[in-house]
Amino acid sequence: MPITTPLTALLGIKHPILLAPMDIIAGSSLVTTVSRAGGFGILGGGYGERAWLEQETAKLKALRAPFGIGFITWSLAKRPELLDVALAAKPGAIMLSFGDPAPFAPQIKAGGARLICQVQDEAMARQALDACADVLIAQGTEAGGHGASRTTIDLVPGIVDLAAGRVPVVAAGGIADGRGLAAMVMLGASGVLLGTRFYASREADGAEEAKRRICDATSGSTVRGIIFDLSRNNVWPAPFTGRCLINDHARRWMGREVELMQNVAKVAADYAAAKASGNFDVAAVIAGEAVGLIHDIPPAAEIVERIAAEAEQLLAGRRNSVASAA
Prior knowledge:
Elements: H1 6-11, E1 17-19, H2 28-36, E2 41-44, H3 50-60, E3 67-72, H4 73-76, H5 82-88, E4 93-97, H6 105-110, E5 114-119, H7 122-130, E6 135-139, E7 145-147, H8 152-163, E8 169-172, H9 178-186, E9 191-194, H10 196-199, H11 208-216, E10 222-225, H12 227-231, E11 241-245, H13 248-253, H14 257-262, H15 264-277, H16 300-325
Parallel strand pairs: 1-9, 2-3, 3-4, 4-5, 5-6, 6-8, 8-9
Antiparallel strand pairs: 7-11, 10-11
Helix pairs in contact: 3-5, 7-8, 9-16
């Protein structure tokens, strides 16, 4: 039996599995595949490149399955007209992360979309609820890309208790298989948001070398900090730092961030050249702590089905054991 939760009912999806809106990586192909498999694909609007957004949303207009579009909130504030582009595609939801969603909430609701807000602590969750968020994503520090310091297993029940059943809560950070989905459901979450696991899929728009490095990585192979943001001359507001795979560039500058800042012009130029050439000994592979659980690059639909089936089996086994004990 599929896992049904308030999230699946609200979004009209079969499985409580959401695709994280990874900037550039989560393009229309990956979104389409995840949504058609019964999950909820979310396009990675990221910092807001209009030409790319128009191109990818045009491909989604014919998708006959629920999907969403995600933005970095503080970056969207610099180019608010991009929300018009997103809403024109008729998404089921707009996801906002890293900033106050209130300025955009009325337009999102008026455009017929649900508002999904990613939060990293209770204060952010209250801010999102005040903005009439329909779904809260509780993102733990294990997540790839930008985040904060609370762990998923600590944060999720805290946000669940705060939401008190008013809106579904989705867990994010360090989850890559059915065990993670089952565990988060047991903590009170209505579903999971996955980034790194879907990065290592055939439909993800990332470089094949980056996908291979995710599969080859072992537990403990990531680092959270500001090295990669400094290196690309794109420092984020506090308290957000970035998690990536550890590489030669990270090893060189860990503990020497002040020196990096003093040499940022040259470092940034070298970093940009490395990124353009696909040199991931220098350029970042954005990935979370779930890398130790990822060993293949299958179609995204297989990922959805695999995680859903494993979680369903685990949760059914628990229900049966509880019934037998009674």
